[in-house]
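Structure first, sequence second, as always.
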């Protein structure tokens, strides 16, 4: 090979490296300290500024260790659409819950496009705030959601663990195409308002291969969630997978095209739930498939409750305006902790339409009594094995 050819080749290789190789920003080189004490908020934000300002793909690397960080604001738009945040370590919220308690969010991604969060543990240290709340003190802040992704597109969360959030663990709001895979949520069964993953006003959200153990809903689905896919999720303890509460507002976006398949519930308050306030609303739920669920000792395995009115405030004597239609339950089996294993308590004003049940076999765990089903204002059909006997 001639020298000139060699030089040309090397030039091409260097050019390719510069244009395609990701820039890597190690948070330690920005001053982050993995010692579980030093506040590393600023170094992480500086690393984000660098990655977001990079015109080529960028990786933020958080090495092993424990980093104390306050509110982190990852705001777009960025100069590139391929930022990976690789977290080998643990991010810890300040142990004083007052620091973040009124901040709404601990980690917030807002207006980003093309971000992957790879690995990592978020330890929000929520126990202090829960104790404050359970002491009935009026001076407790409401608490921060650990990870919020808002007004963003094309986000991947892969292999993240979230421990002991103050409020919700993860919220997806106003997004398009968000994939959450291998998420692990852990909080005690009695921790207040610690929903695992909440999705609203978003389309194309996928939750796969995840384990959610918490004190409130494992997954909660709010108004305006469409094309949502939940598969291979284990829930418990927790309040189940819940579409709702919906219909709190008069004018509200509907929930459409939700698939929930291959899910297990262990000792949860609910299994598959749809819930709406007993108030007038333009909200609706249309097109839900619940397929292949295993219930173990679940208090309300299958439930539609359109008479939600906690404390009977602002809704007594009202009925829900939320229209629920085309909901299919297929291959659902296991045990109910209460006698009523199936409950469809729908709105008098807008009865549930097109409820389909196929191969549902739920037994009351107290074998002496058989489970029962309860229907009000619910229409649809049943086929295959149906236990308890259908009331549709
Ligand atoms: C329903 O949502 C899934 C993703 O969850 C999507 O693949 C499918 O195309 C959607 N169906 C319709 C009719 O929009
Ligand atoms: C329903 O489930 C019970 C408990 O698992 C089982 O014993 C029974 O055979 C099932 N019934 C049908 C018809 O599949």
């Amino acid at each position: 090979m001639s020298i000139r050819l060699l030089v040309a080749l090397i030039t091409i290789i260097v050019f390719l490296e510069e244009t395609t190789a990701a820039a890597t920003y190690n948070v330690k080189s920005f001053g982050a300290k993995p010692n579980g004490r030093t506040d590393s908020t600023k170094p992480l934000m500086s690393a984000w500024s660098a990655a977001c300002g990079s015109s080529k793909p960028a990786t933020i690397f958080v090495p092993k260790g424990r980093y104390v960080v306050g509110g982190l604001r990852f705001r777009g738009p960025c100069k590139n659409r391929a930022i990976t945040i690789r977290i080998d370590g643990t991010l810890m919220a300040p142990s004083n819950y007052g620091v973040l308690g009124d901040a709404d969010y601990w980690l917030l991604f807002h207006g980003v496009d093309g971000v992957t969060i790879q690995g990592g543990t978020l330890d929000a240290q929520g126990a202090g705030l829960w104790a404050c709340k359970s002491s009935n003190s009026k001076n407790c802040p409401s608490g921060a959601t650990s990870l919020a992704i808002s007004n963003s597109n094309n986000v991947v969360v892969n292999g993240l663990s979230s421990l002991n959030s103050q409020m919700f663990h993860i919220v997806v709001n106003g997004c398009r195409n968000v994939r959450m895979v291998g998420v692990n949520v852990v909080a005690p069964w009695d921790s207040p308002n610690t929903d695992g993953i909440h999705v609203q006003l978003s389309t194309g959200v996928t939750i796969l291969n995840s384990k959610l153990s918490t004190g409130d809903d494992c997954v909660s689905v709010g108004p305006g969630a469409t094309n949502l896919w939940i598969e291979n999720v284990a829930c418990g303890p927790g309040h189940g997978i819940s579409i709702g509460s919906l219909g709190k507002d008069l004018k509200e976006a509907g929930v459409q095209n939700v698939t929930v398949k291959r899910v297990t519930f262990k000792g949860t308050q609910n299994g598959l739930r749809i819930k709406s306030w007993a108030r007038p609303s333009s909200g609706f739920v249309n097109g839900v498939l619940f397929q292949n669920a295993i219930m173990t000792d679940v208090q309300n395995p299958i439930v539609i409750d359109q008479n939600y009115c906690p404390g009977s405030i602002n809704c007594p004597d009202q009925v829900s305006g939320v229209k629920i239609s085309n909901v299919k339950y297929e291959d659902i089996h296991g045990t109910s902790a209460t006698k009523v294993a199936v409950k469809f308590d729908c709105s008098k004003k807008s009865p549930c339409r097109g409820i389909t049940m196929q191969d549902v076999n739920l037994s009351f765990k107290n074998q002496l009594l058989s489970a029962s089903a309860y229907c009000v204002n619910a229409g649809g059909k049943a086929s295959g094995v149906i236990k308890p006997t259908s009331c549709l």
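Margin note: Residues 227-229, 257, 259 surround 2-acetamido-2-deoxy-beta-D-glucopyranose (ligand 1) (CB under 6 Å).
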